[in-house]
Amino acid sequence: MKKLMLLPVMLLAAGVFAQKKDNTPKTYDLIIGGYTTGTNKGISVFRFYTETGRTAYLTQVEGIDNPSYLCISKNNKFVYSVNEVGNDRKGSVTAFSFEPKVGTIAVINKQPTTGAGPCYISVDKAQKHVFVANYAGGSLSVLPVAKDGSLMPVVQTIQDEGHGPNKDRQEKPHVHTAVLSPDEKYLLYTDLGTDKLNFYRYKPGADQPLVAADPSSLSVVGGHGPRHIDFTPDKKYMYLITEMGGVIYVYDYDGPKSKQLEAISLVADGFKGAVGAADIHVSPDGKFLYATNRGDANEIVVFSINPDNGRLTFVERKSSMGKTPRNFVIDPTGGYLLVANQNSDDIYVYRINKQTGKLTLTNSKINFGNPSCLKFTAAE
């Protein structure tokens, strides 16, 4: 009798498990930003189907100057974009309302960044502040976020000083990225011009929320030019890609006290062309790392990650099928990688082998003018 009583309970548990599994999103919104110097007129939204890797156009918002980098609020209701214009102090950022179920996007407001050439933007999980890297101005800007998603004026600006050994590219500071640590205790930003990764403590309730950490920075080899960073899902390891050096620095992550474990080159042995390393991402399962190299290589480089020490092992290099693979994104299920080729006006979709990390080109492609940023958010 007791055995018979267990059967409904087991079936109920199995049903609950199946229900949870079925709730995993199968469709996502792919939001695309880029430069508006060619055929692109703003930001576009596509639907992405994880079971097939296919995409479908949904909508576009026009009249946005060079929305070259985007971020999405944690609640999926707002999108924020830089307006990367000018070498003077004309840079700005724009806030948008977003409806993920239908993919509609609309402008809320716009604010100046007080810095030139903003190229990167991020937002904290609580939606208190956005952080903007002003590349041409060599500064970092902090703007509060209102409850309605709109942006308020800049409350803090951090101006970097110094230069690097490359007189053509490092004549002054060039802040390139602004990323919160996984626990959001720190704001990390790279400075391509001074070869530093900088750390500031983040205090969201303060009038000026960023305070320099101690130590305040990590340095790379002179002339390498730090660009983007990413972390493993378990938060143990951090990876920093350098644009001019074409090198990935691997760190045992501990905030500003992080220890370098190794530095590994993206560049193939014997390669003599121009190097322009760009983007870097860890797969959702933490097993693989992907990076793009522009210049004359135009390729995606794949590494496996040693789970015991975070070190990298080369797997393969794959053509991006276009020119200048500036940015790429891995879908949240880890099944596909999409790469944006800025100077050939196209986005290609690759299937990821989850056992080997290797990429296989699919038949899915998006034609888009000067794409430079791809972001996913759940559509369900």
Automatic annotation (TrEMBL):
Put simply, this protein is called: Lactonase family protein
Q: Where in the sequence is the signal peptide annotated?
A: 1-18
GO function terms (MF aspect) = 6-phosphogluconolactonase activity
Question: Which Pfam families does the protein's record reference?
Answer: Lactonase (PF10282)
Q: Look up keyword Glycosyltransferase and say if it applies.
A: no
Q: Does the keyword Zinc-finger apply?
A: no
A GO cellular component annotation in the UniProt record: cytosol
**Family under the similarity heading:** Belongs to the cycloisomerase 2 family.
Species source reads: Mucilaginibacter mali
What domain of life does the UniProt record list for this protein's source? Bacteria
- Which GO annotations describe the biological process of this protein? glucose metabolic process
Task: Give UniProt keywords alphabetically.
Answer: Carbohydrate metabolism, Glucose metabolism, Signal
